[in-house]
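Run log, item B.
One chain of 343 residues. Sequence copied directly from the ordering sheet:
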Amino acid sequence: MKNVDYIIVGDGYAALFFAHQLILNNKSFMIFSEGKKSASQISAGIINPVVLKKFTTFWLAQEQIDFLKISLKEIESYTGENYFIDSPIHRIFHDENEQKLWLKKSGNKELKNFLDENFDHLNGVKNDFHTGKVNQSGRLNVKGFFAGLLTYLENKENLVKEKFDYSKIDILNSTYKDFCFKNILFCEGMGVKENPYFSEIAVIPNKGHHIRVKLSDSIPEDITIKKKHFLFPLNDNLHFYGGTYDREQLHHEIDHSAVEQLQKGLSEFYPGDFEIKEVHFGFRPTVKDRRPILGRHTLHSNFYVFNGLGARGILNGCYFSKTLFEYIENNIPLPKEISIDRF
């Protein structure tokens, strides 16, 4: 029987950023990864402090951006890789009214550090009303992040590649198979619906599609372009475009209406031809109030959940991993805005 401080079930942003907190604090742990590509692993990796539909920001946006920068530097110290891509978002304006609204909002205290007052014109795409740059935005190298961290954890013998079997938990003795744990943390995204301990938490599946396309003509490669969706280059001569949001069509197949929506959206501002090479989809775990769900089980005091990261998986997963660690280890209360007890 191997003694560990934590068992982590899941392998998305919540799981890996919490594992990072455990590494920083010299805690022993095992991660159970089924090996399926989660919503996190096919996400765009956008790091964005602004809601680009309304030109607003969100709770703790600056704090989350700052903490992510620190955390990625810490992760680089042991993986040897910097996973931040300095590719700022340029939002294409639909009309002059959006320009005026952007300028008005850029004077707000909460937004002045994010909304650049100077507009740009991009070559290779339709942007008659120019674009607004989101300062402090960028992307995570999603493929590199998961490959690098999971490889590191495997080499350190912190990773078990198998589907977690809830029936093997011995609650009274805090054991799972050959492991004796102090705490167990479930970070399963929509997989939580199969979890007998936390299946009732208020997460709602939101299906998202993205396409990977080959463009006929070149566009700026050092930025992320946003109109309805995000467009940016990948390493294999393809471009990512997405993603959609759908709470209705929740079957595990490609929705052709979503693909058509993406084709139409890209055609609106990209004048050249493009060929769809791949279609991907996943299910984001979202919450009505758009804030994650963290907390302890009502009956089992060493069972915890970290879920509901939604479309801000990177920022939410990184920032609130420390909040959850401090709650478990030092009994520092969770903010009511993210506590499982708010429902």
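Observations after the first pass:
- Residues 7 and 184 are 5 Å apart (CA to CA).
- The chain has a mean pLDDT of 97.
Flagged for discussion on Thursday.
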